[in-house]
Amino acid sequence: MKRALITGVTGQDGAYLASSLLNKGYEVYGTYRRISTPNFWRLEYLNVFNKINLIPADLGDTGSLFETLKISELDEIYHLAAQSFVEASFETPVATGDVTGLSVTRILEAIRQLCPDARFYFAATSEMYGKSGKTNRPLREEDFFHPMSPYAAAKLYGYWITKIYRDGYGIFAVNGILFNHESPIRGLEFVTRKVANEVAKISLELSEELRLGNLNAKRDWGYAPEYVESMWRMLQQKEPDDYVIATSEAHSVRELVQKAFDVAELDWQEYVKVDKRFLRPLDVPSLRGDYSKAKRKLGWSPKTKFNGLVEIMVKEEINRWKRWIDGERFPWDAPNYPSENRILTRASRM
Ligand code: NAP
Ligand code: F7E
After folding, report:
1. Do the domain assignments include residue 236?
2. In 46-149, which residue ranges form alpha helices assigned H by DSSP?
3. Domain boundaries, position 263
4. pTM for the model
5. What is the domain-level CATH number for residue 242?
6. Ligand whose nearest atom lies closest to the CA of 343
7. Domains: count for the chain
8. What share of the chain is helix, strand, coil (3-state, %, to 5)?
9. N or C: which end of the chain has fewer CB within 10 A?
10. Span from the CA of 245 to the centroid of ligand 2 (angstroms)
11. Is 86 in the pocket of ligand 2 (CB under 6 A)?
């Protein structure tokens, strides 16, 4: 039986990947960090919480990462843990640099010393392209990187250190350059889930408006369960390499909002307000990826495109809120979150 470790198993991709690897017959290990309230709701939602081996580890703590690798005797390591919210990286640029960037070297160094034959996946990102996205042409693996946030700069460091350990030490290390991918278990602060959640609440008269930042930004949005399959395929190849994973469609936040309100049969213009608190000091204007290398070499293609994705997300959110009205309580209950309108950000003080 193959053994795989997922750092960040409590996150969106970690939970889907755990489920997918279990279905493939893997023994799955996952790291989580100690926080005041346990964050295992996604693993429970996908019914995998009792099927994986959980190891406490923090990306800032080198010893805990070495210990993790010592106890788990791994074939594959998927490094997904990160401070992954671009907006937050402007608030905590140093911590983001450490957790999202430097931690990659901590893990690679542990692999080099303890298990150099283990295969390593790094969660790189389309955000690394940044300004290069303005060409509006679908971006490929060889295109120029021009990061526009502390998050993207940290990921670019992780991308390069992954290549350096591959070329310098012969470690089977790959970069998955994934474009935005979403699902009903996405964090609530990301724009797709924020929109889906608020549209559902508005449609059930639990909320009256939706406040957003930059409606002009365009993103290439895919469906997360399909994207984690590509991670596994990258580690099954003969040679390590880097791959873009995307849908090759770009849509604006405005289109996202329009489609989401359409699903609920509402007119978006009656409810959406632009609020400068959700604007970033810098925002990537447009990103679209070319997945032809992944199609050719991994046999991977996206099945769910923009319209299907928005429908899945809005319908699931409406279903949850209806059950909530009927008295059911779930871990994803939004009433427990502070309203985003009450969170002050640096952008809001500009
Ligand atoms: P996510 O839902 O935000 O999950 C991030 C994970 O990292 C969580 O398990 C989180 O733990 C963990 N983490 C954060 N700080 C940590 C620390 N100091 N020590 C240990 N663990 C820590 O992100 P995602 O959407 O699943 O994305 C997975 C990875 O892919 C991330 O690296 C992200 O940057 C990258 N990526 C995502 C996308 C996308 O569109 N989703 C696209 C490209 C790349 P808690 O649960 O305790 O917070
Ligand atoms: O923003 C705009 C915002 O936060 C998308 C992460 O998974 O994908 C994600 O990063 C766009 C941006 O995702 C709001 O300005 C407008 O232009 O959902 P997001 P992101 O920043 O693209 C990449 C690939 C990653 O690697 C990251 O880890 O939407 N936008 N109004 C808003 N965004 C948010 N969050 N909230 C708003 O109110």
Report:
1. yes
2. 62-72, 86-91, 93-96, 103-114
3. 3-335
4. 0.96
5. 3.40.50.720
6. 2
7. 1
8. 50, 15, 35
9. N
10. 17
11. yes
